[in-house]
């Protein structure tokens, strides 16, 4: 897993001990899950708009915002990026069409 994801996950855990005026992440935790989910929705929309505009710098910037807020959501739910990476690793090499056919059959 990327070092920066692991390092960021550690910072997000440490921020659980801070107050909202000390840290943006702590302020997100203080506002609660619904606010974090709203931020994910906003960042997802901004990512879609950037992609529709074809602005590569903006796509990267907005995707980073989206990933960051998803990381905050995972931390809030006592999960980390390793759980998502493990799921992607589990799926690796398994055709999306094959996986869907298996799901539809069960
Ligand atoms: N990667 C990020 C990161 N990406 C985006 N953001 C913040 O996410 C917010 C993006 O939301 P918007 O664009 O909607 O800006 P906004 O209007 O200010 O946000 P709202 O007040 O509406 O929530 C901005 O305030 C950004 O600064 C981030 N804030 C923090 N981090 C990482 O988290 C660490 C801990 O941050 P603090 O908790 O603030 O110390 C930092 O060292 C960084 O590594």
From TrEMBL:
Entry annotated with the keyword Nucleotide-binding: yes
Localization annotation: Cytoplasm
GO cellular component: cytoplasm
Key words, A-Z: Amino-acid biosynthesis, ATP-binding, Cytoplasm, Histidine biosynthesis, Hydrolase, Nucleotide-binding
Class of enzymatic activity (EC top level): hydrolase
Keyword ATP-binding: yes
EC id: 3.6.1.31
Pathway(s) the chain acts in: Amino-acid biosynthesis; L-histidine biosynthesis; L-histidine from 5-phospho-alpha-D-ribose 1-diphosphate: step 2/9
InterPro entries per record: HisE, PRib-ATP_PPHydrolase-like
Reaction(s) this enzyme catalyzes, per UniProt: 1-(5-phospho-beta-D-ribosyl)-ATP + H2O = 1-(5-phospho-beta-D-ribosyl)-5'-AMP + diphosphate + H(+)
Protein name per Swiss-Prot or TrEMBL: Phosphoribosyl-ATP pyrophosphatase
Origin species: Methylomonas denitrificans
Organism classification: Bacteria, Pseudomonadati, Pseudomonadota, Gammaproteobacteria, Methylococcales
Gene name for this UniProt entry: hisE
């Amino acid at each position: 897993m990327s070092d920066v994801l692991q390092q960021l996950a550690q910072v997000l855990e440490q921020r659980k001990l801070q107050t909202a005026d000390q840290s943006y992440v702590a302020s997100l935790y203080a506002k609660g899950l619904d606010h974090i989910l709203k931020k994910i929705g906003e960042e997802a929309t901004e990512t879609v708009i950037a992609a529709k505009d074809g602005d590569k710098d903006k796509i990267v910037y907005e995707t980073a915002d989206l990933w960051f807020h998803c990381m905050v959501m995972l931390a809030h739910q006592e999960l980390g990026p390793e759980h998502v990476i493990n799921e992607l690793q589990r799926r690796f090499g398994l055709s999306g069409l094959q996986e869907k056919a298996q799901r539809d059959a069960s």
